[in-house]
Structures are given as structure tokens and as C-alpha cells.
Specification:
Length: about 725
């Protein structure tokens, strides 16, 4: 039975960005809201442009239900073409993957998105011609291989006005000066130098224009093998030890070439192992970390747990949640990466040893480990501008192949791997373990992960600086000619207004106090805001508490802990590392010093906000981290308004420069899905513990019978 809402009378037109063209549309499309197994939904128009797929209903025309956290580029019912993961058609209740040319057109369309949204559209009431146009249009524009210049990035860049915010504090690392400033900031300029050898990309198109190498490395060495075999500087520790990376030589070589390359490498190692350089430790990441294929396989399995079509599917997977989570291996990969970063940190901090990360291209796992080490060891990388500068340095300019790894052009699935998402998942572990140490929030990380699929920013849509520079110049599509003006994702004002941006900043960030010379003795009291927070949480007991929580069906919303595989199991690290790890965790946390992740099994958790935010069944009404955030933001505004009143009384002048924070009155009406989704419909779920539900499932097979499943809560009442 379908609960029909009358088709809309008034014409609703899509909001088009500069350079965006309407390609095809279909009227009288029915969008399901399958949160409870019923077929309720709403009629509207489904459109496809050269930028997005969009569903327009009568709510789209009104601004009454404006969300507090509204994205100005991508709306609630918008899917960018790059965000489409898979499209299924339903034929006589059977699902079939849609790719390429279609002989028969489906009666239902299911779109799975890379940000884990699921859209269900019914096409039974749509004209046959419109069904053919919209389905073939959506499949063609989102699933078939395309040329780079066909990306919406270029259409937008040629048509949009250039009015970006020039106050962006992110260091872009596009100039020699940026690299020299970074060397000076980390005090690495005594032993390392920024080189111009690759100007005009005469060494390699894979290397950035400017990069940093040890002072003893000659220009001839850099030129000899197109930059391969050259240690490239990432960061210097306070004690002088440095983190370096290096791309290896191709494996299939004849003997004479291999001997020459080996001799070349031996010479390089000897040169950078002598004073004034520290001892050198080599770390081949291809042998000590999972392969990109393993990472892709694990993430593919993992995301399937969250691409939920309806309530029935959710509760069917809930009864075996832990075993399903364990079998994906995704959390274990995160643990291994964090453990590797801890090993590197120990070498730099305790052993005063230079670490050289080695990988075939030095643009994948090298980026993950070098970024994580800097987040753990350098408090500047835990500020918003510092973290953005880090992503620019190690990933964007460092040459990570975003275009291939995200498969934006649908050229080859073999190259696809969620390497950048892996980093964000690892950083999230640190953010949720040590919130006061970070200037940004988990919402910031979630929004950043979504921005991977928004092709109006150039940040995540090129494989290298060379590719970006060569495609930046050229004729525009209109009368004006000259270079394209690409936007950077770091200009958050493009996507969010100032009220929404407040959710990206951590109100409890323990800012580094500025030294006050006049009050040296009492300076430590300036840390009062920090000290009022718990310095560190006690280690959780692995006996009672953890397994007691396991029986709670809400565990899925909050934690997603791993069972077993502690750091001191089969792959026990060396004693020195274990001592370093235990010793650090036994002391109070300095939020501006070294941070080490807690990596024992239960500490590695599921990033609930990113993966559960579209699932109504997973929400905590009036709960979750947002309930705390709402109270804190309310309190902050109250304090600020009192400060303004005090300033008025003392100086008779109103401070017009007060940063306003959005008021979140009545946080009980919010849920843990906020700010990405407002309070959802109450899900019909069994009012029984998970274990009882499983027993019932075995007896009556309730999961497979929608009618009994939907009526369960009513019967129990």
C-alpha cells in the first residue's frame, strides 16, 4: 500500500550554480521515506544536471524548514555526480546494478551515495519517455568514464565570479617562500634546504614545483632518476630529528640498472647518516602496512553496514553487529596505522633518530603516516589552519592521486582506494580521545570528507600539482580567456554561513596561553579552563564494563568497539615502544605536547557521526555529543553577551566585533543526527533487548515479515 501525497501543482525549478546546465528531468517521481518499512513518501521532480542529481518537492520551494547547518552548494536532496557510488534498478522486486546502456527501464531507482545516503525513487507514475531520459541520463553522467575537462570543476571555474575570501590563513605551499617559512617554523633550516630544481617540472611531473631535501643532496642526484631515491623532507622534531619520505625504483629492472640504483641509494644513505644528521631508520610501508587493495576491500565491506535501505534491514544486521564489524577488518587497519605512527613518533622523540618512510610512489601511505605523526607531535597541526596547511603540504602539493584514488572520472576501479578517508578516520580517533587538544570538531572532519565529492573545489580533483597547473591555463568556455580561477575547499564561506561554520570550531579547545612577562609566577593559572576538564580518562577495564555494554542495543549508536586484538597480543611491539606507550599514558596529558592514541582493541571506535548520521534508527533523541555542544554554545553566548554589557558599562562603547555563536535552544528536541539531519521520525523498533529480539527472529522469522515487524511495538503496547 502506498500512502499517496498529491503531486505538487506549482512549478519547482532547481537552483543552478554558475556553469550548471539542466540535462534531463522527470515529473511525478515518488521519493520513499522508508524509515519504518512502509511506503510513505512524497511526489516531486527528479532532475539531472552536469553537477548533481536533485529531487525537488513542494518543501524545496519554501524556506520555512531551513536547517541550521545548511550547505549552500549541496542541499538535503542533492547528490553530486561524483558522490554517486552505485545505482540499482528494481525489476519485479529484484534489484539489479545499472551500468552503461539499458534495455529495460526499472520501476524503482535506488541510489547509494559515497557519503552513505540512500535514495529510493518510485517511477511507476512517471511517463515512460521521462523514465527513459532520467534513468539513462543519471546512469550515463554518474557512472561512465569521462574526460578531466568534462568535470563540473571547469564549467564552474569559467562561469563563477572570482570573489573568494582572501583572509584564508591556510599555507598553500605553492611558493618557495612557503617552504622556507615551514623550515624556519620547525627549525629544520640548519640541515635542510628548499630546492627549485623542479621548476618547469624538468625533474618530474609527479613532484611538486618546490620541495625540501637534506642540504648535502646535490642537484645532479635529484635529476639523475627523476627524483626517485631522494629523501624528501616532511617535518622536523624539536630535537632536530626529521621525518623524511622517498619513492622507490621500479621493481622490474635489468641487473645492471638495479646495481647502479643500489649503489646510488647506498651513497644517499651514507651521506644523510653522517653528522650533523641523526641516525637513520628506514621504514618500508609496503611491507609493514596493509596494501591499498586490502584497504579498499575492507572499506567496501565496512560501508555496506551503513548503506541501509530500510528499518527492517537495520534491525536484521543489528543482531550480529559485532561479528559483522569485526569481519570487515576496517577498524583493525585503523589500529595498525595508528600503531605505526606511534612507532615513528617514538623514534623521533625518544631515540632522536631520523625516519625515512619508503613507498613506491611516496604519495599514499607515506601521506597518511607523515600527516598522523605531525598531528600527534606538532600542536600547530591540531589548529584548523595548521591542519589545512598540513593537508596542502603532504597531500595536495605532495602529489596524492585524488583523481585516481577517489575514481572521480570512473576510469579504473583498480586504482581506487580510500586513503584520505583512512587518514580522517585516524585523526577522528585522536579528536574523540583528546577533544581539548583540537581547534576543530568531528563535524569539521565529517564536512571535509563530504567535500571530497564536491567538484567546485580544485583541492581534491587532481593527481598532482603539475596536472593542476597544466589544466589551470587555457581558454574559458565563455568569451573571456585566461587561466581558470579554481576555488579551494579551505574557503568554508563558500559552503556555509558564519552560523554554520561555528559548528566546525571546538568551543572547548585549550588554546596555548601566551606568556605574560609581568606575571611569570602566576602564569600557570591561565590554564584554568584546561584544568577544569579531566586530564585523561582512566584506562577502561577489559573485564566487566566492556562486556556489560555489549548487551546494550544502543552500543551501535555510540561506540562500535572492537573485541580482542589488543596491542600486546600476537603482534606485540618491541619493549621500548611498549614502555614508551605505557609511560606516556601514565602521565597527565599536555594538550600542546605529544599526543599518543589509545590503540588497545576497545579504544578504536566507529566514527558514529559520519557513518550513522542518515540512519533514523541510530539516533539518540536529545542525546549524543550535540546535546553537550548545544549547552556549551548557549553558555558561550551568554558569557559573551555579559561581556558586552560589562564593556558598555565601563567604556560606554558597544563592541561590534563580538563573535556570535548560534543559539541552540531546547537541545532536547535535537538528536545525535544533528547537525546533518534534524529530529527524524520516531523509528518503529522492537522494544526488546537485542538478545530477546534475536530469539524472536529465530522463532518467528520476524525480520523477513514486514507486516509483523511494523506492528510489533503497537502489539506490545
Amino acid at each position: 500500500e502506498i500512502h499517496i501525497k498529491e503531486p505538487i501543482e506549482k512549478e519547482v525549478n532547481p537552483h543552478l550554480l554558475p556553469g550548471e546546465l539542466l540535462l534531463c528531468e522527470a515529473s511525478t517521481v515518488y521519493k520513499y521515506m522508508q524509515e519504518d518499512g512502509s511506503n510513505r513518501g512524497t511526489y516531486g521532480k527528479l532532475v539531472c544536471t552536469n553537477f548533481k542529481i536533485s529531487f525537488l518537492d513542494d518543501d524545496s520551494a519554501s524556506d520555512d524548514n531551513e536547517p541550521q547547518f545548511k550547505n549552500k552548494i549541496v542541499g538535503e536532496n542533492d547528490i553530486t555526480l561524483q558522490c554517486v557510488d552505485q545505482i540499482y534498478g528494481v525489476y519485479d522486486e529484484k534489484k539489479k546494478l545499472l551500468t552503461g546502456q539499458l534495455r529495460k527501464y526499472p520501476e524503482k531507482l535506488i541510489i547509494y551515495c559515497k557519503d552513505l545516503r540512500v535514495f529510493n525513487f518510485c517511477l511507476r507514475y512517471t511517463k515512460e519517455e521521462e523514465v527513459k531520459r532520467i534513468v539513462s541520463g543519471i546512469v550515463h553522467h554518474s557512472q561512465t568514464p569521462k574526460l578531466l575537462k568534462r568535470l563540473f570543476l571547469f564549467s564552474y571555474a569559467s562561469a563563477a565570479p572570482n570573489n573568494t575570501d582572501g583572509r584564508n590563513q591556510t599555507v598553500m605551499f605553492e611558493t618557495l617562500e612557503d617552504w622556507r617559512d615551514e623550515l624556519e617554523r620547525t627549525k629544520g633550516n640548519v640541515k635542510y634546504k628548499a630546492v627549485t630544481t623542479n621548476e618547469g617540472y624538468r625533474v618530474s611531473e609527479k613532484l611538486p614545483l618546490y620541495f625540501v631535501v637534506p642540504i648535502c643532496i646535490s642537484e645532479e642526484s635529484i635529476l639523475k632518476y627523476e627524483g626517485r631515491g631522494i629523501p624528501i623532507w616532511c617535518w622536523s622534531c624539536h630535537n632536530g630529528a626529521a621525518l623524511l619520505k622517498m619513492s622507490t625504483f621500479p621493481k622490474e629492472q635489468d641487473d645492471s640498472t638495479s646495481q647502479m640504483q643500489k649503489a646510488f641509494l647506498d651513497g644517499i644513505y651514507k651521506t644523510i647518516s653522517k653528522p650533523p644528521y641523526e641516525l637513520l631508520k628506514l621504514d618500508d610501508l609496503s611491507s609493514s602496512l596493509p596494501s591499498l587493495q586490502d584497504i579498499q576491500t575492507a572499506y567496501t565491506r565496512f560501508k555496506q553496514l551503513f548503506l541501509i535501505d530500510n528499518s527492517t534491514d537495520f534491525w536484521a544486521t543489528d543482531v550480529k553487529w559485532f561479528s559483522l564489524l569485526e569481519s570487515t577488518n576496517w577498524l583493525e587497519i585503523i589500529r595498525r596505522v595508528l600503531k605505526k605512527a606511534t612507532e615513528v613518533a617514538e623514534c623521533l622523540e625518544i631515540q632522536h633518530t631520523n625516519v625515512l618512510l619508503i613507498e613506491e610512489s611516496a604519495t599514499d601511505l607515506c601521506c597518511v603516516i607523515s600527516s598522523l605523526v605531525q598531528v600527534m607531535m606538532d600542536s600547530y597541526s591540531r589548529t584548523k589552519s595548521g591542519f589545512q596547511s598540513l593537508i596542502q603540504k603532504e597531500w595536495v602539493i605532495g602529489g596524492h592521486g585524488f583523481l585516481d584514488r577517489c575514481n572521480h572520472l570512473h576510469k579504473s576501479e583498480k586504482e581506487e582506494a580510500p586513503v584520505f578517508l583512512l587518514l580522517l578516520n585516524c585523526v577522528w580517533q585522536l579528536v574523540q580521545q583528546y577533544p581539548p587538544a583540537f581547534e576543530f570538531t568531528e563535524t569539521y572532519l565529517t564536512v571535509l570528507s563530504d567535500s571530497l565529492y564536491v567538484p567546485i573545489f580544485s583541492t581534491f580533483f587532481f593527481n598532482s600539482q603539475h596536472q593542476r597547473d597544466t589544466n589551470k591555463s587555457g581558454e574559458s568556455f565563455k568569451t573571456q580567456s585566461g587561466p581558470f580561477r579554481f576555488l579551494t575547499v579551505w574557503d568554508w564561506a563558500v559552503q556555509f554561513d558564519s552560523k554554520a561554520q561555528a559548528f566546525l570550531n571546538n568551543p572547548l579547545y585549550a588554546e596555548k596561553p601566551k606568556p605574560d612577562k609581568s606575571q611569570r609566577k602566576t602564569a600557570r593559572f591561565k590554564h584554568q579552563r584546561q584544568l577544569s576538564l579531566p586530564l585523561t580518562q582512566a584506562k577502561p577495564s577489559t573485564k566487566r564494563g566492556f562486556f556489560r555494554e555489549e548487551t546494550d542495543h544502543l552500543i551501535k549508536n555510540i561506540l562500535g568497539k572492537r573485541i580482542g586484538k589488543f596491542i600486546n597480543s600476537a603482534d606485540e611491539p618491541p619493549n621500548s615502544l611498549r614502555e614508551f606507550y605505557d609511560s606516556w599514558h601514565s602521565k597527565p596529558v599536555d594538550y600542546h605536547g605529544l599526543l599518543l592514541p589509545r590503540i588497545d582493541g576497545p579504544e578504536i571506535k566507529v566514527w558514529a557521526q559520519r557513518y550513522l548520521r542518515w540512519i533514523p534508527e541510530a539516533q539518540l533523541h536529545g542525546g549524543g555529543t550535540i546535546a553537550t555542544a548545544a549547552k556549551i554554545l548557549d553558555l558561550m553566548e551568554e558569557v559573551q553577551s555579559l561581556q558586552v554589557k560589562m564593556d558598555e558599562e565601563h567604556s560606554q562603547a558597544v563592541s561590534g566585533d563580538v563573535h556570535s555563536v548560534p543559539m541552540l535552544r531546547n537541545s532536547a528536541r535535537l538528536s545525535s543526527l544533528f547537525p546533518f539531519a534534524l529530529l527524524q521520525r520516531q523509528s518503529v523498533k522492537p522494544a526488546l533487548p537485542t538478545s530477546t529480539w534475536k530469539d524472536l527472529e529465530d522463532e518467528d522469522d520476524l525480520v523477513k515479515r514486514d507486516d509483523e515487524f511494523v506492528d510489533l511495538s503497537g502489539d506490545m503496547l
